[in-house]
């Protein structure tokens, strides 16, 4: 399967295997710029899409894996993360922190670990879908597995 995956997705796939994740990366037929379009392509509820949002948290990266049904309250996230300011990261900041483009940031496979918060709402779904390192790739996982593989902290994001 790796030979058909984009280069970034191959890196993510390798990280997933090292972490004991059995879910396979799926290549979508078209980009999914929103949780709704991703959900339609994989056949799940919008809330089962784990959006990967990289924020600039006092100059460092912060990954928030949030349900596609939620918007992130940046003030709440800043307090939760113990930082002064959380703001949307630029595409260049995201690429530098993760090695991956906006729209395809996976929970793992980054050059260095990124502090991660995982939306508690994702626990309501038996299967959640996360990005696979490229805007056309996703993989099935679970809330508990996301927390485990990222070393993330379960939180409320809104």
Automatic annotation (TrEMBL):
InterPro entries registered for this protein in UniProt:
YbaK/aa-tRNA-synt-asso_dom_sf (IPR036754), YbaK/aa-tRNA-synth-assoc-dom (IPR007214)
Domain YbaK/aminoacyl-tRNA synthetase-associated intervals: 30-148
Q: Which Pfam families match?
A: tRNA_edit
- Entry superkingdom: Bacteria
Molecular function terms from GO:
aminoacyl-tRNA deacylase activity
Q: What is this protein called?
A: YbaK/EbsC family protein
Native organism is Nonomuraea diastatica
């Amino acid at each position: 399967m790796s030979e058909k995956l984009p280069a970034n997705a191959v890196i993510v796939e390798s990280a997933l295997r090292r972490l004991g994740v059995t879910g396979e990366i799926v290549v979508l037929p078209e980009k999914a710029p929103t949780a709704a379009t991703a959900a339609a392509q994989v056949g799940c509820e919008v809330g089962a899409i784990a959006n990967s949002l990289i924020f600039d948290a006092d100059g460092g990266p912060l990954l928030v894996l949030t349900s596609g049904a939620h918007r992130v309250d940046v003030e709440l996230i800043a307090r939760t993360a113990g930082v002064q300011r959380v703001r949307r990261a630029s595409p260049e900041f995201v690429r530098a922190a993760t090695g991956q483009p906006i729209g395809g940031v996976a929970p793992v496979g980054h050059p260095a670990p990124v502090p991660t918060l995982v939306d508690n709402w994702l626990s309501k779904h038996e299967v959640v879908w996360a990005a696979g390192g490229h805007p056309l790739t996703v993989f099935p996982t679970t809330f508990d597995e996301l927390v485990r593989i990222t070393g993330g902290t379960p939180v409320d994001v809104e």
